[in-house]
Write the structure tokens for this entry.
Amino acid sequence: MSTTHTARHARAPQEAGSAYQPIDGRLLDVEDLHVEFHTDDGIARAINGVNFTLDAGETLAILGESGSGKSVTAQAIMGILDMPPAKIPQGSVRYCGQELLTMPEDQRRHVRGPEISMIFQDALSSLNPVFPVGWQIAEMFRQHRGMNKSDSLEQAVRLMERVAIPGAKSRVKAFPHQFSGGMRQRIMIAMAIALDPAVLIADEPTTALDVTVQAQIMGLLAELQQERQMGLILITHDLGVVADVADRIAVMYAGRIVEQADVYELYRKPAHPYTKGLLDSIPRLDQKGETLSAIGGLPPNLLRIPPGCSFNPRCRYAQDVCRQDRPELLEVAPGRLSACHFSQEVLHG
Ligand SMILES: Nc1ncnc2c1ncn2[C@@H]1O[C@H](COP(=O)(O)OP(=O)(O)OP(=O)(O)O)[C@@H](O)[C@H]1O
Ligand code: SF4
Ligand SMILES: [Mg+2]
């Protein structure tokens, strides 16, 4: 996907009057985002200073092991964290230049869905089993666009056709259990794009699907992204799945982005030992449950993140400085960011 700055020109006419317009193509600015969970055992520091941007027409993959903070980052952007136990002690999330973290809920409701939409990690189980799928898609138009029953159902059929559900017209009244996993995921995508959002966050959109269906779903997301010039955030623990679709990859570890780069550059030459470990694990991606297993050890307990670089207990490059000073995410080559005291050695070694 090439990055373009045609902004929202390709969006549906009903969105032309949106109160939000990207500034120089920029949709999202996430700066120094922190999220912590106040638990009985102490404070779990799930997000520890995340920074990234997303432009119209761009696909950013957020990659990391389980527990690295991918979903919490998405939930913070969507404004759906339960607070408490969650708290956002510092940081900023701007959408088209407007701060979301302090935006009143009645205003934010108009962002969540019509502007920034999300496909949830447990999407396959989040369809309501007792309502027909068409009715559930149509509900988006009734709620947000005030459409009547027959118009909203007509829109639902059009969307089901767009996400390539065969026989959409005759299946609009079918129930979720009458669809395969891949088709249910298409229905979730249809619901997420129903209001023509400028930003779509897809949290592990293919995890529960077999490899062929995974490829079809990624292909569909890529098509929709190009067609609508959406900013797409693809969350995954599986480097193989996003490689063909993403423009940039942000690698997360213990609630921080430790490397960010153009997909091709990152594959060619990682600048962070953690990314290098992830790439080394790629040959095992075809073995279910074995992804990312080439790196020894476990991610840190978020109640007690080690001082210095949080990756140091697992890093074969670690030196004394790594146990004392936390490396900042810095530009280590044009367009390349890495948070490692020895980025140059990793990059050129
Ligand atoms: N409500 C909560 N209370 C306490 N801790 C939480 C809560 N929600 C999330 N966390 C913690 O925050 C950390 C980050 O969670 P998150 O769901 O973002 O991980 P993830 O990167 O999406 O992982 P996965 O790949 O398994 O989906 C985890 O350690 C998780 O246990
Ligand atoms: S800062 Fe040190 S411990 Fe952290 S990734 Fe770099 S070399 Fe490894
Ligand atoms: Mg998750």
